[in-house]
Known about the structure:
This is Type 1 glutamine amidotransferase domain-containing protein. By secondary structure, the chain is α/β, with parallel strands linked by helices. The chain has 7 helices and 11 strands. The protein has a single domain (3-229), classed as Class I glutamine amidotransferase (GATase) domain (Rossmann fold). Strand 6, helix 4 and strand 7 form a beta-alpha-beta unit. The longest helix is centred in the middle third of the chain and has 15 residues, at 71-85. The model has no long low-confidence stretch (mean pLDDT 98).
Amino acid sequence: MSKILIIMSAADVWERTDGSAYPTGYWAEELAAPHEKFVQGGYTVDFASPGGVLQPLDKHSADPEIAGVDCARYVEYAEKALREFGPLVKLDEVDVDDYVAVVLPGGHGPVVDLHQDADLGRLLTAADASGKIIGAVCHGPAALLSAVDTEGEWLFAGRRMTAFTDEEEQLFGTAEGAPWLLAARLRERGADHIGGPAYQRHTVRDGNLFTGQNPASSARMAEDMIAALG
């Protein structure tokens, strides 16, 4: 049976420019919706993170006023999937050849740790070189920034992608005080960032790279990946 790897952040705090600590964690829908689609498609799904650390749930993703009426189902599904999987695989022990696809969900964690994780950068470089499917949703595309060569050149420069927009960050209330804004940073590094309407489902495909703008885009991104995997 083919396997797909979901790589989570290990961060539980996002330090702001004023030195305050903003609690973060995985966003339930961004983890649960793709996992559910992959399992329904007949894939085995593994979880990995830096150091094998299990990131906590972002409590905002369990608030129906923020995350929508289906959030309780996503929280229940995500917690069950993680519990049944057991200890996460340590990112530096992952063999990318074991997987047909790699998925990077959000929550704010990826802008804390994954964007500069050298082990992840090597893994993504190897995955892209072999044409493996790479998916990233919401703040997950921050993790793509880790893939730089010895000269500091970014592997995904020039690629079309989407991610949580600066407008969405402002509407969410986390733009002010953020060390940097994701969509702006992706553009600065050379991405062709294509944003859609705030908080509406929006996905972009560029070859083997599949990206979703926000939590509402998670399931569609996974469906697009499954279709590409055949």
